[in-house]
Amino acid sequence: MLLIPAVAGMAGGILLEEFAGLSTPLEWASLPIVLIALITTLVQGLALSFIASALFSRGGKWSYLIPAFGIGVGLLAAFGYIPLRILILGMGFQFSHQLWIPPIALVLSFLIAYIGAHFVPADFEIHVSAKGELFGPVYQRLPFLGNGNLRLLVTKDLVDLWRSNTLTKMLISYSVPLVFLILLAWLVDFANFPIPFNLLSYAPFLGFFGFQFYSWLNGMDPPDFLNGFPVSVPELLRAKVVVYFLITTWISVIFIAVMAKVLDQMWALPAALLVMLANSVYIVSLTALLMGLRPNKAIFDFSIMGWFYLGTVVPLLGLFLLSFTQGDMTIYENWGQLVSEQGLNATTAVLVEENEAGRGLRGILFLSAILTVLGGAFQMMLSRRWGNAAFEN
User: Fold this and answer.
1) Same domain, 41 and 68
2) Model confidence pLDDT, tens digit, residues 217-235
3) Which of 73, 328, 332, 339 holds its CA 20 to 30 A away from the CA of 168?
4) 94: Cα within 13 Å, side-chain hemisphere
């Protein structure tokens, strides 16, 4: 699902060079080397992620040591203290072409995963605590959800998150990838890469992390007991989506603001926020529609993951490519200056200007609007797909 399409795309690039006259540095002989390097890297990454997740799931000190270790290694690599070719074995093979590296990497990855399997706890962490009455106070803070089942279910999930101490783990699991993205943005900007990365290049990927958080929400508490209550599966799915936005939106906003500061692109912040929110609405709604209450199970269903892959890659790739038209951010700087001088009416004068940046920005906002509408449509389709389903996980 990941590597074969990537290598097939490279092969397509070579064919375009032969039949369409487009220039590419790729060669046919490089494709098997790249595929082996990608497989080696993916296997190593999966093994390390697995043992880190196994230790992280044990709670206690591991909840802090694992993220700290990951960020520390990332910083050491960013500052050049650890060569990436040594840290990432697949990269070492791609540059050196030494055939002994992939077999050794596969054996080491297997051993790491095998050791990680022994660290997986036999049961969930048992934590006994006493807390005051939470349901009533939380319920009173959610008047914007009305007085129906949605408000009750959202309140229940929030109380469960707080009482089980799962919220801390979920926030860390959501925040750590964002910290790595900030480090990547700093590294790309510091190294002056020729690719015009900018704030809008990163904003679309925030919604993609919503899949992991949504999986946490559905793995927290088996919903089977709800079969005896006057509530439906679509109502619970919508409640999960609402909980996701209540917990993660403020983190995403802070991340986008920090990223704007790191990249010195504060003028792009409003558009980036719109892109981030649109993608979050779309991807989480798509996940709920396709996978329901069983995302950790559905991820192994090829038919479901095929649609999920298609539904996420196409819009993400479109927004990512359109973001390159915003490389110099001039349109946002001009907009900010004009607004300060002429007020909000200056927006039209900038956006109607027929230049590449203006067309790219309109394309990004138009695609984000489409994703928002599709997200709303997916929410409406939940009743049709899951209306008669029973609560099971």
Assistant:
1) yes
2) 887 778 888 888 899 999 9
3) 73
4) 17
Tokens 């619970």, residue located? 236
Using an 8 Å Cβ cutoff, are 325 and 317 in contact?
no
Q: What is the 3-state secondary structure (H, E, C) of 242-269?
A: HHHHHHHHHHHHHHHHHHHHHCCCHHHH
Task: Specify burial of residue 137 (Cβ count, 10 A radius: 0-12, 13-18, 19+).
Answer: exposed
Residues 239 and 113 reside in one and the same domain: no
Asked if 156 and 262 sit in the same domain, the reply is: yes
> Could you say which DSSP state residue 195 is in?
S
Q: Which domain holds residue 2?
A: 1-126
> 46 with 78: CB under 8 angstroms?
no
Q: Is 292 helix (H, G, I), strand (E, B) or coil?
A: coil
Query: Are 242 and 383 within one domain?
Result: yes
Pair (272, 199) in one structural domain: yes
Per residue in 156-209, pLDDT (tens digit) is 999 888 887 777 777 777 777 777 777 766 665 544 444 556 677 777 777 777
pTM, full prediction: 0.68
Same domain flag for 96 and 213: no
Q: Which tokens is 17 given?
A: 């060079």
